[in-house]
Write a structure and sequence with these properties.
416 residues; alpha/beta; TIM Barrel; 2 domains; 7-stranded parallel sheet; 13 helices; 7 strands; elongated
Length: 416
């Protein structure tokens, strides 16, 4: 063996996921608030959670998810932090790969790890489902077991642990147990991870009582592909962060996943119709800027600076019978299929304007764009003369020429 070896493949000759298509959105879990200190038995986190619940800030159909410590007193304090909420998911982690045993407090392999998982589940039941306290019984409790570094865990052993926990918790089809199978540190190719998920999904019993969840990390820059492929393989739920925040290289970007579904005709179940407002709020709260080239959400992802692309975009709008400056026309109540070159999704669907697509600099300026900005149809000779003026101006500035500057140039150089 070398220092770094290829990850072994999965023996799954009859794999089904490559031939499937995503037709519905997964359950979403945003873990943005989980970064940093995750202990709700600490005063700031406890008070923050109580404020969310006591002020009614949590909608009735939203599940609050919290991480559980292993110690009894700390676990009890965590339950106190979320009591009174309508729906709560209690998530406890179990590190199972062999290389964790010397370093983490699950050092006893095999049967003792299973016994530990079962004992923890019984303790959680004592504080929740089996509690005699009326204020505890008001909450709908669900359990999530996260098999830490699932990719590196022996699959039969994973199944043994999950079956034992499931039998102890006793889920129902209406309140399923969640088995979260993360790529805690991304080590496999996305297709291998999908094979692992399909194999797990085909091995676990009482599937009607189980929700398979994934939490993909971006250590090897495949997090979006891994999340999509594992959904094809049977994952019902995806955990992640907005705009790829999270530990180390970040978790999967839930916004990108949602808009990829939307751009393929699948309703994601989240409203991103004012995407710039979402970006601004995330940047303010997280104090981390969203990159201008971030898929879908970045400020420049729909911008084109190339003249040949400008021509193709303009002709695409003509083909659809659309005017960039006008609201979308519909035929029998539906908009035509979106087939605009270089623009994978209609910018107006996420609250952006078409006039920001085509950007003018010294290398690019089309009369179509200028006409759209000025709302006039100039004679042919005047068109080319004015385009030269715009390009000269861009060369002197060294930057792009925004629409207001084009209007000013026309007023100054042509109209006057």
């Amino acid at each position: 063996m070398g220092k770094y070896d290829p990850f072994p493949t999965v023996n799954l000759p009859d794999r089904q996921w490559p031939g499937k298509t995503l037709t519905k959105a997964p359950r979403w879990l945003t873990s943005d608030l989980r970064a940093g200190n995750q202990a709700l038995h600490m005063v700031p986190e406890y008070d923050f959670t109580r404020r969310l619940i006591d002020t009614g800030a949590v909608f009735e159909d939203v599940w609050l998810q919290v991480l559980l410590p292993r110690q009894g007193m700390a676990l009890s304090r965590t339950i106190e932090a979320v009591k009174g909420a309508n729906r709560v998911i209690l998530n406890f982690h179990l590190a199972t790969p062999h290389y964790y045993h010397p370093a983490v407090d699950v050092s006893q392999p095999g049967r003792k790890i299973v016994d530990f998982a079962v004992g923890t589940t019984r303790l959680i039941r004592t504080f929740t489902k089996d509690s005699q306290k009326p204020e505890i019984n008001k909450t709908n409790w669900a359990l999530e077991l996260t098999v830490e570094n699932f990719q590196d865990t022996n699959l039969p052993f994973t199944i043994t642990i999950c079956e034992a926990v499931k039998a102890t918790w006793q889920p129902t089809p209406s309140n399923k147990i969640i088995f979260n199978l993360p790529s805690t540190v991304e080590r496999t190719m996305p297709n291998i991870f999908a094979d692992q998920i399909e194999l797990f999904w085909g091995s676990i019993t009482e599937r009607e009582k189980v929700c398979v969840s994934v939490h993909t990390h971006n250590d090897r820059v495949c997090t979006v592909a891994a999340a999509k492929m594992t959904q094809l393989a049977g994952a019902d739920r995806v955990e992640g962060c907005l705009y790829g925040n999270g530990d180390r290289a970040g978790s999967v970007d839930l916004g990108t996943l949602a808009l990829k579904l939307y751009s393929q005709g699948v309703q994601p179940g989240v409203n991103l119709g004012s995407l710039d407002d979402v970006v601004a709020q995330v940047e303010e709260l997280m104090q981390i800027p969203v990159h201008r080239r971030a898929p879908y959400s970045g400020r420049n992802v729909s911008n084109s600076y190339t003249e040949t692309q400008h021509e193709a975009i303009y002709k695409g709008y003509q083909f659809l019978g659309q005017d960039q400056s006008q609201p979308r026309s519909k035929h029998q109540g539906q908009e035509p299929e979106w087939k605009i070159p270089y623009i994978p999704m209609d910018p107006t669907d996420i609250g952006r304007h078409d006039e920001h697509i085509i950007r003018v600099n010294r290398h690019s300026s089309t009369i179509h764009h200028v006409k759209q900005i000025l709302h006039i149809d100039m004679p042919h000779k005047m068109q080319h003369e004015f385009i030269s003026i715009v390009k000269d101006h861009a060369t002197k500035r060294g930057f792009e020429v925004p629409p207001d500057s084009i209007r000013h140039l026309f007023q100054k150089e042509v109209y006057e």
